[in-house]
Amino acid sequence: MARPLFFHSSLLHLNNLLAHNHTPLRSLDSLSARALCVLRKAMAGPRPVVLSGPSGAGKSTLLKELMKEYDSIFGFSVSHTTRNPRPGEENGKDYHYVTRDVMQRGIDNGDFIETAEFSGNMYGTSKAAVQDVQAKNLICILDIDMQGVRNIKTTDLNPIYISIQPPSMAILEKRLRDRKTESEENLQKRLNAAKVDMEFSKEPGVFDTIIVNDNLEDAYGKLKEALLEEINKVKKINMSS
């Protein structure tokens, strides 16, 4: 069974209470005993992963490499957006493309873990998107911006936070221009947002790992190293199931 999505704080609280309760487990009623086993098993499971960084830092490329090598370990949380698809993007694979009205209705209904707005377009991660991944006993990866990171910090999702950063603003600008997918106005907005993002990543305690993507192979190696413990957890679960 997949781990429940938003119960980490409750799990920690109950486990702490039980840890300081010296009553033997056999003395607890059967429901409490079963609950304790479920709680401890859930807490031992793999944590979700939040991957963040400015557009052009190389998050998507690194994610594709990770999913290719560990397709039975990781699952990608498909975000919602109100922007139009770019050439080659697929609905339901790259994003769930929806209207602003549909997205706002979902936000009002509490269907989203985090939302953000950039260049007049809304982005967000739904609870259902994360639950779909966890239902397959996979490590859920969330690709979100710094607004989303701030929102996730207020929940009890308890993920691993990883920031992917470019070597410099000059290199980032070249990468974005080489895409040829942005107007000059939008490109400048992305560059300005990237400056803020790079400063945000330096704040103590925000990210567990910061990876500067100046070489794809090296950056990918560092990403795998940061996730090795969770990868091994899933492998162990798969071997025992």
TrEMBL record:
<keyword id="KW-0067">ATP-binding</keyword>
<keyword id="KW-0418">Kinase</keyword>
<dbReference type="InterPro" id="IPR017665">
    <property type="entry name" value="Guanylate_kinase"/>
</dbReference>
<comment type="subunit">
    <text>Monomer. Interacts with RD3.</text>
</comment>
<dbReference type="GO" id="GO:0005829">
    <property type="term" value="C:cytosol"/>
</dbReference>
<dbReference type="GO" id="GO:0004385">
    <property type="term" value="F:GMP kinase activity"/>
</dbReference>
<dbReference type="Pfam" id="PF00625">
    <property type="entry name" value="Guanylate_kin"/>
</dbReference>
<dbReference type="GO" id="GO:0005524">
    <property type="term" value="F:ATP binding"/>
</dbReference>
<dbReference type="GO" id="GO:0001917">
    <property type="term" value="C:photoreceptor inner segment"/>
</dbReference>
<keyword id="KW-0808">Transferase</keyword>
<dbReference type="InterPro" id="IPR008144">
    <property type="entry name" value="Guanylate_kin-like_dom"/>
</dbReference>
<protein>
    <recommendedName>
        <fullName>Guanylate kinase</fullName>
        <ecNumber>2.7.4.8</ecNumber>
    </recommendedName>
</protein>
<dbReference type="InterPro" id="IPR027417">
    <property type="entry name" value="P-loop_NTPase"/>
</dbReference>
<feature type="domain" description="Guanylate kinase-like">
    <location>
        <begin position="46"/>
        <end position="228"/>
    </location>
</feature>
<keyword id="KW-0547">Nucleotide-binding</keyword>
<dbReference type="InterPro" id="IPR008145">
    <property type="entry name" value="GK/Ca_channel_bsu"/>
</dbReference>
<keyword id="KW-0963">Cytoplasm</keyword>
<comment type="similarity">
    <text>Belongs to the guanylate kinase family.</text>
</comment>
<dbReference type="InterPro" id="IPR020590">
    <property type="entry name" value="Guanylate_kinase_CS"/>
</dbReference>
